[in-house]
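Lab notebook, design round three. We kept the backbone fixed and only want residue identities now. Task for the bench partner: fill in a sequence for the structure below.
Input structure tokens:
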């Protein structure tokens, strides 16, 4: 710690010694004299003469030009490669190059899509044209005295696709939340229920659903109506960007029905009876639908394969293999039943 303090003091002493040196004192006197400013002016003039003399030399440099594709065939659209540029290597004196860089705003070079040739590349139809096909147009945009040495890339590739329209159904992004004792009364409705998408056929063919932006609401206890935006899709135009969302809500109640148990997979030579022969299903549904649902809307089965094995089960598990779609949930009992198995009388 002592050594560090000593070294800092030593540096300060040397710096003070430098500031008080005869060299620094002479430099200070020079800065406040006319001779210094005269020297500075002549230095700037000499630098300018050197710069302008250097501009007389010949140089090679590169300019970047934007590309614009025109005359796209009717009912077609440019899919890939629209934002391309060409690099121009030019040769000229420094004056011309400087003027070109300062004063010129490069006009896009037009390439006629209808005159492009087509090849198959990576399984896709791709149009192409040699960059030099527009060489005269490019030269007309250069300053007088500038020589065009090279254009790159030598070939421009462009993916052109047919325009396609297709009606796509709207889907909700997110899941509505309901207050206790309330459920979805019916299907969620959109107005319009589908939108027309327009874009490249190769892209439109991959779209099967259009989703809304994420729905964020509090728990619902009444029918909910709101305008909601659709998620945009790149390179595709939607006929509607906003749809009206309707979520019908109603209170639900419970109901119990009796459902007979049927046997599945039993050979004709056998007879099976379950105990009990039916079960009770308790389901929850909206009040507008609950009275329209009865036991025939459910199907309860046991699988006889369980008793045809060597290690025969003592009880059979009951499954519900059919239930109505317009219910919230259901429970049933019993889950297992006992049974009697007998051979059928061959007479």
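Proposed sequence:
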């Amino acid at each position: 710690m002592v050594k560090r303090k000593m070294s800092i003091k030593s540096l300060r002493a040397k710096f003070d010694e430098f500031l008080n040196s005869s060299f620094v004192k002479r430099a200070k006197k020079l800065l406040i004299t006319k001779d210094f400013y005269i020297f500075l002016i002549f230095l700037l003039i000499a630098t300018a003469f050197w710069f302008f003399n250097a501009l007389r030399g010949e140089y090679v440099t590169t300019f970047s030009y934007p590309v614009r594709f025109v005359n796209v065939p009717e009912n077609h659209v440019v899919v890939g490669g629209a934002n391309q540029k060409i690099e121009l290597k030019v040769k000229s004196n420094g004056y011309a190059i400087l003027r070109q860089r300062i004063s010129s705003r490069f006009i896009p070079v037009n390439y006629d899509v209808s005159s492009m040739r087509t090849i198959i590349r990576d399984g896709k139809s791709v149009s192409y044209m040699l960059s030099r096909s527009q060489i005269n147009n490019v030269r007309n945009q250069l300053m007088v005295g500038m020589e065009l040495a090279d254009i790159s890339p030598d070939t421009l590739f462009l993916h052109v696709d047919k325009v396609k329209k297709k009606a796509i159904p709207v889907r909700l992004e997110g899941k509505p939340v309901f207050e206790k004792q309330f459920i979805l009364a019916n299907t969620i409705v959109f107005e319009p229920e589908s939108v027309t998408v327009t874009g490249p056929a190769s892209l439109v063919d991959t779209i099967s659903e259009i989703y809304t932006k994420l729905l964020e609401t509090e728990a619902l206890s009444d029918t909910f109506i709101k305008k909601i935006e659709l998620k945009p899709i790149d390179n595709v135009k939607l006929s509607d960007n906003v749809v009206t969302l309707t979520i019908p809500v109603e209170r639900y109640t419970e109901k119990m029905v009796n459902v007979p148990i049927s046997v599945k997979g039993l050979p004709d030579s056998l007879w099976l009876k379950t105990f009990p022969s039916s079960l009770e299903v308790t389901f929850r549904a909206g009040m507008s639908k609950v009275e329209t649902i009865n036991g025939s809307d459910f199907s309860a089965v046991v699988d006889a394969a369980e008793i045809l094995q060597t290690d025969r089960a003592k009880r059979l598990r009951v499954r519900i293999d059919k239930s109505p779609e317009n219910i919230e949930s259901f429970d049933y009992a019993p889950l297992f039943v006992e049974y009697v198995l007998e051979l059928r009388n061959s007479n």
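Keep this in mind before ordering anything: Confidence is low (pLDDT under 50) at residues 1-6.
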